[in-house]
Amino acid sequence: MTLSRREFLGTAAAGVVLTVPGIIPSPAADEKPKKLVLIVGTPSHGPGDHEFNAGVLLLDKCLKGVAGLETVVFRNGYPKDDSALDTADGILCYADGGVGHPLVRENRLVRISKLMAKGVGLMCAHYGVEVLKDLGGPEFLEWIGGYYENMYSCNPMWRPEFNEFPQHPICNGVKPFAVRDEWYFNMRFRDEMKGVTPILVAKPSDAVRDGPYVYPRGPYKHIQESKGRAEAMMWAAERPDGGRGVGFTGGHFHRNWANDDFRKVVLNALLWICKVEVPKAGVGSEVTEAEMAANLDPKKK
Ligand SMILES: [Zn+2]
Fold it and tell me: pLDDT means per 10 residues in the chain (301 residues)?
């Protein structure tokens, strides 16, 4: 069953449209659902790490029942037939990045640029926020407001404590949380953070800045020299074309999806990029141990 947007907003009992004199009823109830396309990266790391397939299928399960949203999952990398993107309102890319980034390789920047120009939303997660400075970098600044730049950004394993959140729909219902992850920071952001709102912010300890990082192990002098500075591990960006972008640097360990607030902030962001209203309490979801253990990449022999 699909709930109408009106029910989702909780403004009317099922089947009853309330009208108030002088207030034009929202046409939202008749609106076509927004479409989110989720692109899953191919297997790369060991068990429990970079489980893009299991992670995306878990998020997809949590989004079922969100009124006004439909999803399409592209499993195992960028699809041969990507025509679903033509009618997408938002795209998630949870995949390995760098030279092999699914949105960059094989001249896809051109294809994605056209979608972005129409105002399609984009969220990239974990390694998916990394592109090359001269291949994808300028586009990512426009599309999602920032990216991981090799030797400028860093990727330590650490446990930031996210205690305060800005007034932003992505933070709806998110309570303070802390999980250990490969939380990248010191992203290359737009100049003066124009149009960029930091969403998950914490201060790395001096020990975190001193390394080692996952790769290269560092430490980098410019990271050490910024001791005491707060960093954004997730951010939201608005584009002049009306589109919305989000970067989320966690997502290395599959087990972190079991944390309700870690999951909620990502689910909220997926609605936000599609311009689906985020419920006041955020997207509610539950995952079982069995669901956490499902769809993991096959173990290498
Ligand atoms: Zn990782």
Answer: 38 40 50 95 93 98 96 95 97 96 96 97 98 98 98 98 98 98 98 98 98 96 98 97 97 98 98 98 97 91 55
For the record, the structure tokens of 70 come out as: 């439909």
CA 249 – ligand 1 centroid, Å: 9
* CA 50 to centroid of ligand 1, rounded, Å: 6
Place of tokens 């990502």: 266
Q: How far apart are CA 174 and CA 163, in angstroms?
A: 10
Backbone dihedral angles phi then psi of residue 202, each to the nearest 5 degrees: -155, 165
Q: pTM surpassing 0.85?
A: yes
| CA terminus-to-terminus distance, the chain | 42
Q: What is the spatial distance between Cα 107 and Cα 264, in angstroms, rounded to a whole number?
A: 33
Q: Which residues, chain by chain, have CB under 5 Å from ion ligand 1?
A: 182, 252
Between the CA of 49 and the centroid of ligand 1 the distance, in Å, is: 7
pLDDT score of 27? 47
Ligand 1 centroid to Cα of residue 119, in Å, is 29
Tell me the CA–centroid distance for residue 245 and ligand 1, in Å.
21
Report yes or no: 171 and 265 within 8 Å, Cβ to Cβ.
yes
Burial class (CB in 10 A: 0-12, 13-18, 19+), 146: buried
Quick one: tokens of 206? 């001096």
pLDDT computed for residue 299 by the predictor? 80
CA separation, residue 300 to residues 44, 75, 149, 209 (Å): 10, 19, 30, 33
| Complete domains list, the chain, with CATH | 1-31 (no CATH), 36-292 (3.40.50.880)
Q: How many CB atoms lie within 10 A of CB 63?
A: 19
